[in-house]
Amino acid sequence: MLELIFLLFIGYVIKNHIDVKTIFNILFYLVIPSAIILQFSDISITPDLVLFPLLYIISGLLIIHIIEFLGKRGGFNRVQIGTGIITIPIINAGALYSISYYFFGAEGLVKSTLYTIGYIFLIPYSIFRASNYSVHYSNREDLIIGQTIKSPIIISIIIAILMNYLDIKIEGIFRDMIDMVVDMLVPLSMMSIGATINLSTTVNRFILSVLAIRTILPAFIIILLYNLHLIEYNDLKLLIIATLSPLGFFGPMISNRIGLDLELSSNLVFVSIILFLIIFIWI
Predict the structure, then answer these.
(1) Which residues does residue 91 pair with via DSSP β-bridges, in sequence order?
(2) Which CATH number belongs to the domain containing residue 212 in this structure?
(3) How many domains does the chain have?
(4) Which of 26, 88, 217, 245 qualifies as a FRET site for 69, CA 20 to 30 Å off?
């Protein structure tokens, strides 16, 4: 975990000497699509595991609309609301996979991976809702089409699903090449987040409010399902860990592309990472 903080620090130090948008473009067009294809194409989905992505989708939808509802009534501006919508529902899959494997082994890794399949629906839907609050609202239809139907991330998810369904495996030199690209995900992501952090505005009422919503709501649903005997105790622990996982790097990338607040989105991710590290060390 310390290496993540170090990469954030490097990004913050060199923020005035690099083109952050170039790093985001590399992540958006190459690294993250490669990671998605590699991640989802090897998963075996069985009926008893469908609850995991379904729970993620339901929680994400509720979070999006609660942020929208409370944001309007809490005096937050349109760009803040849109940035929260695009950033808050998407978790950092890499962090979730690592800690799930650490605590629950291979079974935890499979279940946490299936949990994040909810991306398939949540990513395009969050773009759809957030585009209402973009500074480019007049081109809303173009934004939605450009960032969903034409998005490298969505296209890569569709390709991965087809590969999974058709049982197409990535092997040999092609897998080695994709592995090499995917290895750049965490370093580039953390450096880009660090380069866009503004420490003077890192923590404010909006950030604390949406992070609280993002943590408390899914935890309430998960505990309710456990009390109704719909999930086992180990699944309860795994899903609670998922709700505490840091936010994903998708939010800042899309915020940057559709006219929302890149700095705010990066600060949300940064604060969620720090909170996750504190909780992880405490555990």
Answers:
(1) 247
(2) 1.20.1530
(3) 1
(4) 245
